[in-house]
Amino acid sequence: MDANGQAPMVRLVESIEQGQEALVRLSVPDGQAPGSLPEGCYVEFADVRGCDGISTHQEPSPCGEHVTAWKISSKPGDPVNSIRIGDTSSFPPYISGGLVTEKKVGVPYAFKSLAESLKDPGMPFDNMVGTDMINFGANLRGRGGGIGIVSQPKTYSSEYLDKGLFRRIVRRNMRVRGPT
User: Fold this and answer.
1) Does the structure show a pLDDT above 70 at 121?
2) CATH number at 10-103
3) What's the pTM value of the predicted model, to 2 decimals?
4) Please, is 41 exposed, middle or buried when counting C-beta atoms within 10 Å of its C-beta (0-12, 13-18, 19+)?
5) DSSP states of 81-140 as a string?
6) Organism's domain of life (predicted)?
7) Which of 57, 35, 59 has the alpha carbon at shortest distance from 48?
């Protein structure tokens, strides 16, 4: 899951140092919003002359798989519009050019299982995500109606569901049983 839901940031590479914690100086291209890359995000390099291998570097992501990117960091006193990447001492010197693009890497989130959620859906805004205040409690009623259908002895074939009758069945159960 994407951590912030925003479009990836793109920056122009001005220079890349060689060293253990290489400093990369960046500039904001025309048409891009100003701002800094978030601490700990992943970036990928493209169209860099020199520094052969900088665009194929792989690191483990929080989800466990390896991604072709660099995890960035910074130190106190670093210049504005700069990032620190890992060890570039084995690469040839930077010549010119290049783009840095923020790479969206999945972030693991823990959720309750469906069985646990059906047994205990929770309370709105406490441990359950609420949708809006206009239909306050509607998600509880909707879940209750769905549980009523699942627990009914009568089975409904897929043709009922395909014809849009599922919604009518839920509404009927809500009127008969009321919210649960």
Assistant:
1) yes
2) 2.40.30.180
3) 0.61
4) buried
5) SEEE-S--TTSPPEEE--EEEEE----------HHHHHH----BTTTB----STTTTHHH
6) Eukaryota
7) 57
